Amino acid sequence: MAIEKLLWLIPLPPLIAFVLISLGANRSRGLSHSLAVAGAGLSWLGSMFVFWKALQVKDLTGFPIISTINWLPMGAEWLKVGIRIDPLSAVTLFFVAWTILCIFIYSIGYHNYNAPAGVHDQPGLPPHGALHTSDEGKIIHVPSVEPMYARFFGLISLFAFAMYLLVISDNLLTLYIGWEIMGLCSYLLIGFWYAKPSARDAAVKAFLTTRVGDVFMLLGLAALYTSTGSLSYDVVFRPDVVVQLAAIPTGVFGLSLAGLSGLLLFIGTVGKSAQFPLHIWLPDAMEGPTPVSAMIHAATMVSAGVYLAVRAFPLISAGWTPGSPLTPPMMVLAVIGTFTAFFAASIAIAQNDIKRVLAYSTISQLGFMVAALGVGSYTAAVFHLFTHAFFKALLFLGAGSVIHGMEHGALAEDDPVDVQDMFHMGGLRKTMPLTFWTFSAGGLSLAGFPLLTAGFWSKDEILSGAFSGRFWVVFIVLAITALITAFYTARQITLTFLGTPRSQAAGHAQENKPIMTYPLVVLAVFAIGAGWIGIPAGFPLTGAHQAGWIITFLSPMNPLEGHSPEVFSSLPLVVSLVVSIGGLYLGWRVYRGYQAGQVDPVERALGPVFSLLKQKYYIDEVYSAIFIRPARWMAEIFTALWLDNRIIDGMVNGLSALMPALGSLLRNGFDKPVISNGGDALGNRLIHWGQILRKVQSGRIQQYMLYTLWVIVVSGMVVFYLMGRG
Amino acid sequence: MLIGHLLSLILFLPTIAALFMIFLPADRPRMLRLFAFFTSLLPFVLTLILWGRFDSQIQGYQFVENTPWYPAIGSSYHLGVDGLSLPMVLLTTLLVPLSILASTTIKTHQKSFLMLFLFLETGLLGVFLSLDLLLFFVFWEIGLIPMYFIINQWGGENRNYASLKFILYTMAGSLGLLLAIQMMGAASGTFDLIKLTSTWPDTSPLPLFGLSPATVKAVAFWAFVLAFAIKVPVWPFHTWLPDAHTEAPTPGSMILAGVLLKLGAYGFLRLVLPLFPTESHQFAGWLAVLAAISIVFGALGAYGQNDFKRLVAYSSVNHMGFVVLGVAAAAMAAGTQHAIIAVNGAVMQMFNHGLSAAGMFFLVGVLYERAHTRDLTRFGGLWSILPVYGGVLMFTAMASLGLPGLGGFVSEFLVVRGAWAVYPLATALSMIGLFFTGVYILKALKMVLQGPLNEEWNSKLTEIRLDELVIMVPLMVLMLVNGIWPAWLLEMINKAAMAVF
């Protein structure tokens, strides 16, 4: 089969799984997850084959795998859509396929397949657990199966379809379609337990916050399409087209058309990748089941935001050469990315919920990537996107495994603690060893533990990019952020796994089944190893003359390629080393002796700043006051009540009140004396005729048939007459 | 021979069926409904035949029938279809049978109701098929009267107010329309649309009341615009709509939102732009501003409602605003690629809104029939007891929201693309409305489906029935097809748009 045809087919298996599950397979849990996993597996297989084929193309950037079809007729032309594999999409396809497959398999265990159904469980709420008679005849409390098990697999299948569609698209329109369908799935999965008010509100918040970005993005699409007549990457990001667009002024903040379109697309990224100021939805999104957090809110969907920014980089960087001042859009990226990275990391220090720490960490790491793009480090951004997908998916799944193990302990011991609160954990390394080792691999990668882990290499790439470009502020802030990252990671691992259990639930936590832990192992391999493909040239220990594979593979995609031979410098490397080891050590030192009931040591150290961090800088409250409440007022009071009800309808009703006055004048002055008698007579005649006609409705069928015959004859004559004329 | 009169057949079959119903017993509602349903399927089947035989490569009208009607004043019975009207004919002949199926909620005087419904269909089809201004006006009015009675006789509590408001608003528009048509007929000696389209733009009408010909023309233009703007409706002429839609019985609301509103938009595309190209170009900016206001305040108005049906009613103002935005862009940029794209988007949006609005109103009706309330604050958490209904509602609401992959997105994207080139600011401002579309849709879904279950409904509400799903499935299939492969429809519209604009 031609590789293009196979590529078209890649998104389809999960879609088929979704359709089948929706249309009836949902009656069987086993069938539902089999369909979903089979769909994800087929797509994975296809992706790996395509990836392998793509590696064999000599100049994949110059000759990407492409196939297009006509989609929308537009006057004399067609809007074409199609599929495309170039180095960027090949790399993305690789991590997307692996993480999706791992998460699908993991979900079977997470939702307690084969466990008994809980007596009080109902659709829309997380399962409460069931009573189960053990082999020894003891009645114990065990986790129960998810009541909406099949729906979960249906929705994640639809999501997987959309993500694959986005990755293989060769144009912004189908990318946008995948982007929005993912948004819908994210909404439905965050609000998976829809009967829970917090989950419901988080779902709505996620959808609407990202929609702010999406409407700007739609304008960006319209602008690009209007000016270039296409939405294909091949056209809109082609160097000569970009040069033309860069020469057209728009009058909006002095931006060129290229800059404006690039920025409009980037606002989409800000929403989807949860960058400041649209970051508020991602922490709340943790209301969804943990596999969802891992897949949508760490590995794939939020990565799609950065993916778009990477795609749009030619527009964003239009007119820039390394060494010259940043273009305004690049400046925006650098500032937003750097600020978000630091800001989110600082909040992560003060979170107790194991998933929320990871959520803020995700925002922060995505900020690293955006900042890297902002300072022109194209390959570093993609490299970090690649490694982050693996280690963050791993961390979320690991956190899910911890929560699942804790739930088990909480149910068995009837200990009503918050099973997601790290301060109730501790000592899990002994009861959940596989989870501990894999989680630590992910955590060390996130913290950038030197040499060994993937996160070290990719983060180092970003720091050295900022360093070699002499963006000192970006470099320093990101270095400090890396330190904070290592610190909160050590805090998380220490609180969760080290020391002794701080609750009964933690004491009786249980390692999960292989169906959950094996995917962790697979991801852990990548979280460690995925960085070795990106070791920079001239690195002292390896002494390679050539940069790692992923860098040489991706750099032809960089529109600035050829301008900046990145020289290896040891200072950023030393900084990476120091902040990572230092942060990890500090975090471990502070939290290793933590006892149940004590105040969080960071709270003691930071004082009032801590509560500011804990309350996430009060951003939700501020938004509520300046956006949400005014919007409700505009809708309910201004538009519905004042404008429509009082002003417009007030005039309409006023006018109509005038009419009866006029009418009664006419009636009393003219109607009654002049017309009335005649009118009454007419009415009486009508009643008379009506009474005669009533006799026709005799209830006798034969009579009706006769009438019918007459009607047919007459109408037949009419039709015949008309046709004869025409 | 039959093919030569295909349009007449489609047009008058509903009337013949309605007349035939006079002789059916009034106390057998089920039989009446089935009769009406099956006879209304005939125009649908004939429309499919029409669709199959329509050659979209040919410019201009097809299946034309032209017979003198009032020779004295130059009016003729002149019918024809092109790529702009054929999709509307299909929409009408599709939605009428579905609405008739949905009329199980009508509990009194079913016979009169169904007859009125069939008369209404003839009126609606007549507007789309007429190529003569006077004929157009006659059908325009025919469509009005049955709807008045449908609201007035079978409507909700506030039906008297709503129906009166509906008919007065529309009559107010019709008045100017009639005068303008008379004036054009008197000045040109014909009401024939094809002839007028080629001559009228260059004709100087007789000076009236001492006004200059240009002013007379501008007045006629505004008379047309007002009539159609009320029907669409364009802000600020929209306040009849929430009342009429909310008070109308479910099938009435389906047709009202699904087809009736399109008459106004169709009037813009068929009459205003071709007959008054200069004035359209001159005043297009105003229309674009009103469109943007409709989009934004339609969405805000919808968000401000706590009555489910009113919320859906307001959503029509929001969605039809995109049609008007497309019309404005086409008027401004006539003759360019932008205009063609904008018209493609506008007609596509008319079709898609017909599907999603009819679907939404029907689903509101399904809920109302069971709960006897439309108060959103009294629902909540219904998804757990009505999983299938919840899924169908989610799907339809997402189509209405313009989710990519479903029809609404394609049409909104085309309008935005077409309008951006012409009115970037108005387009950018309408994005506020597009955002709030999401807000009100999610508000409705949140208050109906999500959250803790209101125990009041626990064993009271029953799942959507098979006969109700039968109504939704064709709509949903079309929403999906229009999102995935819109070319089946768009190719036809595109060819016509290239010919007309």
From TrEMBL, chain A:
Gene Ontology biological process: ATP synthesis coupled electron transport; electron transport coupled proton transport
Occurrences of domain NADH:quinone oxidoreductase/Mrp antiporter transmembrane (ranges): 169-485
Topology class, membrane: Multi-pass membrane protein
Gene3D superfamilies: 1.20.5.2700
Sequence intervals crossing the membrane: 6-23, 35-55, 88-108, 148-167, 173-194, 206-226, 246-271, 292-310, 330-350, 357-375, 381-403, 434-457, 469-490, 515-535, 567-588, 704-723
Alphabetic keyword roster: Membrane, Transmembrane, Transmembrane helix
GO molecular function: NADH dehydrogenase (ubiquinone) activity; NADH dehydrogenase activity
Keyword presence, Transmembrane helix: yes
Compartment(s): Endomembrane system; Membrane
Xref: Pfam families: Proton_antipo_M, Proton_antipo_N
Record carries keyword Transmembrane: yes
InterPro entries in the record: NADH_UbQ_OxRdtase, NADHpl_OxRdtase_5_subgr, ND/Mrp_TM, NU5C-like, Proton_antipo_N
Domain NADH-Ubiquinone oxidoreductase (complex I) chain 5 N-terminal: 71-110
Cellular component terms (Gene Ontology): endomembrane system; membrane
Protein name, per record: NADH-quinone oxidoreductase subunit L
Originating species: Leptolinea tardivitalis
UniProtKB/TrEMBL annotation, chain B:
Ranges that cross the membrane: 6-24, 31-51, 84-101, 113-131, 137-154, 166-188, 208-230, 251-271, 283-304, 311-334, 346-368, 380-401, 421-442, 469-488
Span of domain NADH:ubiquinone oxidoreductase chain 4 N-terminal: 31-124
GO biological process: one example: electron transport coupled proton transport
Residue stretches making up the NADH:quinone oxidoreductase/Mrp antiporter transmembrane domain: 130-435
Keywords assigned: Membrane, NAD, Translocase, Transmembrane, Transmembrane helix
Main localization of the protein described in the UniProt heading: membrane
GO CC terms of this entry: endomembrane system; membrane
Membrane topology: Multi-pass membrane protein
Subcellular location per the Swiss-Prot or TrEMBL entry: Endomembrane system; Membrane
Keyword Transcription annotated: no
The UniProt record lists the keyword Cell wall biogenesis/degradation: no
Molecular-function GO term, any one: NADH dehydrogenase activity
Alphabetical list of NCBIfam families matching this protein: NDH_I_M
Family to which this protein belongs: Belongs to the complex I subunit 4 family.
Protein name, as recorded: NADH:quinone oxidoreductase/Mrp antiporter membrane subunit domain-containing protein
Organism: Leptolinea tardivitalis
